[in-house]
Amino acid sequence: MDVQLRGRFLALLLAAACGAAGAADLPAHPFVSTSGKAQTWVEPDIAALYFETGAQDGSAGQAAAALDELSAAIAALLAEHGVAEGDIDGAELAKKTVSLSKPAADGSTMAYLLTRHYRVQVRDLARLPDLVAALLAREHVDSLSASFDRTDRNAIERELMGQAAADARANGTLLAEAFGRKLGPAVAIARAPLDKMAPALLAPPGAGTPSLPQAHGVKAYSVPPALPFAQSVTAVFKLGGPSADTSTAAKKTAR
Q1: Number of C-beta neighbours around residue 197 at 10 A
Q2: Which of 136, 173, 184, 241 is found 20 to 30 A from 99 (Cα to Cα)?
Q3: Which stretch is the leader sequence (predicted)?
């Protein structure tokens, strides 16, 4: 064998070896990615009212006393409309100095403004309209808004998650069968689409998660007929062997 022929033979052997190594790196089980969704509308059974009260005076002590008196009146009003003490959160206070448009009687041009922020849960929605009307009629009650929710939100979302997972598996089965394959076990599951997972994983803990639910202003403060709930799932499944239809067709062809 001359040198040129030997070089070609060695090149062919090397190419064959590289091809075998590349084939060995391929996954033994191909995969399929699919998603599932579930949603429902449910009548709310609880509300939250958000508002603030304030008192202003040239003396910080007088402003605090006025705010305490106003807070006591608000507590009595809420109790009158069936709100339990444990459903009232008015612990957040703010204090600042403000410039007066006209000097006070003592010639002062500055005053202290004390503000108390409220979050009140209303469990009896039938009493909500009268409570809102009473709050709107009170002086020094500002920035009133409302939000609505379900006390069994977690149970609703768990049920929807199960339905979304079943939908993802059903979609995966249809997709696999369309290509003549069976659907195997799930190897990865996420609540977000795969291309959205990286930003979520890189976000610092607690980012974008407020300590209290955000209020959604409702102009008429009326209870909505229903609230939307939805869940989605993205899953990656192994592809199994040929589907039953494919196996039957292959046997008929072999005959």
Answers
A1: 14
A2: 136
A3: 1-23
